[in-house]
UniProtKB/TrEMBL annotation:
Name of the protein described by the UniProt record: Exopolysaccharide biosynthesis protein
Keyword NAD in annotation: no
Keyword Protein biosynthesis among UniProt keywords: no
Alphabetical list of Pfam families matching this protein: Bac_transf (PF02397)
Origin species: Rhizobium fredii
Transmembrane segments: 66-88
Domain Bacterial sugar transferase: 58-242
UniProt keywords, alphabetically: Cell membrane, Exopolysaccharide synthesis, Membrane, Transferase, Transmembrane, Transmembrane helix
Cited InterPro entries: Bact_transf
Lineage: Bacteria, Pseudomonadati, Pseudomonadota, Alphaproteobacteria, Hyphomicrobiales
Length: 260
């Protein structure tokens, strides 16, 4: 019987023992596999470290941005709260369950833009079905005057800054999805769960919404795999620029209508 030896390898901060026969060829083969395994382990460890650092940078950026934004918009936030409470006769905020980074569910906040769903449903069953599924509001829903303006200006999502501050969301990221919607993504859900939902959508930097589901997922995957702080800043700048252009267009249309 061939004698055996014990080879001790230190791989990725672990003591790894291999018991092999003293035959040169067999021992060499095991050593080669051990080296290859060691390389993969170290590479994976470095990759995980980069992901950890990137996540810390992104979280720091989100926390700082959300804190500053909440301080700046706090007077507007309080004013909208009062107006919404008067308009709906109840709480100013509403929460919808969404899936966050890593699959953790959270309550996604919004200003209430419609009257109570039961009151709305008595006169409009279709509106009730849409509201309970939290779909984008249509022109036939029970909007309050204040709610209609908030949705038109995108201010109904202002409370999501609180979600960003709490760590539920990011400043930049995919659209928040319900658990049911996430199931339809299949394997592509990995990229959503990796980056987590955000206030500003990555596709906005392209200048237009994705033309198809495949295009949308391609953009989401590219964002998740190539995240950088510079990329987030580009998305934010592009969004602000687009919003300003849209505001000027609305002003021109309003002035033109009054002139007629």
């Amino acid at each position: 019987m061939l004698p055996s030896v014990k080879i001790k390898l230190h791989v990725a901060m672990r003591n790894f023992y291999i018991k092999v026969h003293s035959e040169a060829g067999y021992r060499l083969g095991l050593r080669m596999r051990g080296v290859a395994w060691s390389f993969r382990r170290v590479h994976r460890t470095e990759f995980d470290h980069l992901q950890l650092v990137g996540g810390m940078v992104k979280r720091g950026f989100d926390l700082g941005s959300a804190s500053l934004a909440l301080v700046i918009v706090s007077p507007l936030f309080l004013l909208i709260c009062v107006l919404v409470m008067i308009a709906v006769g109840g709480p100013a905020l509403q929460a919808h369950q969404r899936v966050g980074r890593g699959g953790r569910t959270f309550n996604c906040l919004e200003f209430r833009a419609t009257v109570d769903t039961q009151d709305c449903g008595r006169s409009n069953p279709t509106a009730l079905a849409v509201l309970t599924r939290d779909r984008p509001p249509g022109p036939d829903l029970c909007f309050t005057p204040v709610g209609a303006v908030l949705v038109k200006l995108g201010l109904h999502k202002l409370p999501q800054l609180i979600n960003v501050f709490r760590g539920d969301m990011s400043i930049v990221g995919p659209n928040p999805l319900t658990p049911a919607e996430l199931k339809t993504f299949g394997d592509a859900a990995e990229f959503y769960l990796k980056s987590g939902p955000g206030l500003v959508r990555p596709h906005q930097v392209s200048g237009s919404a994705p033309a198809s589901y495949a295009d949308w997922m391609a953009l989401e995957r590219h964002y998740a795999e190539n995240w950088s702080l510079v990329a987030d800043l580009r998305v934010i700048v592009k969004t602000v620029s687009t919003s300003r252009v849209a505001a000027r267009e609305r002003t021109k249309r309003t002035v033109g209508t009054r002139g007629l």
